[in-house]
Amino acid sequence: MRFITALSFVVLLSGCAPLDSHVTEGASQLQLRQIQTREYDAITKERALRAVLATMQDLDFVIDKADLDLGSVTGTRLSHVVIKMTVIVRERGADGVAVRANANLNDRPVESPESYQSFFTSLDKSIFLLQNKVD
Questions:
Q1: Which of the four, 14, 26, 40, 60, has the lowest number of CB atoms within 10 Å?
Q2: Angstrom distances, CA of residue 19 to CA of 11, 25, 32, 57, 121
Q3: Does domain 39-127 have CATH number 3.30.310.80?
Q4: Do the Cβ atoms of 63 and 74 come closer than 8 Å?
Q5: What are phi and psi of 20, to 5 degrees?
Q6: Banded pLDDT at 134 (limits 50, 70, 90)
Q7: Beta pairing class for 37-41 and 96-105
Q8: Which of 79, 72, 84, 80 is nearest to 110 (CA)?
Q9: Mean pLDDT of 65-87
Q10: Which of 21-45 are b and which e, b meaning 16 or more Cβ less than 10 Å from the residue's Cβ?
């Protein structure tokens, strides 16, 4: 009986994988969230989502899912690597939104501030064009 219990315990432990280093190292979750988030004033959630959709398409993402009620857009970009991005838009106050982008490169989280800065620079331009009714 002890042998079976010990064997079960060993099998159970062997199934537990250690945490990946990308989860335990690098930027803290708070720092990463700050890198991934940008706030915009004087724009509705719906208009911000339209700008997110346009930006992702301009950056060659294929939109997998978009949900206005949830405020989420998920897309995939295929080249020599697979980039999957989910962007969440939530209302902030009476006339603003917070936009958070979360990207994965070949199933590994993107933590590079430059990558998110590049996305938000493109989103800034898209929002400007949308607010000024430039097509």
A1: 14
A2: 18, 10, 18, 34, 33
A3: yes
A4: yes
A5: -65, 150
A6: confident
A7: antiparallel
A8: 84
A9: 95
A10: eeeeeeeeeeebeebbbbebeebeb
**Best CA proximity match to 82, nearest among 110, 103, 106:** 106
Minimum mean pLDDT range among 12-21, 23-32, 99-108, 120-129: 12-21
Are 99 and 40 within 8 A, CB to CB?
Answer: yes
Residue in this structure with the two tokens 């720092």, named with its chain if needed: 31
What's the alpha-carbon Rg for the chain, to the nearest Å? 20
The residue among 117, 115, 128 whose CA lies nearest residue 51 is 128
Nearest to 99 by CA among 29, 30, 59, 47: 47
The residue type of 130 is L
| 103 CB-near residues (< 8 Å, 6+ apart) | 83, 84, 85, 86, 109, 110, 115, 116, 119
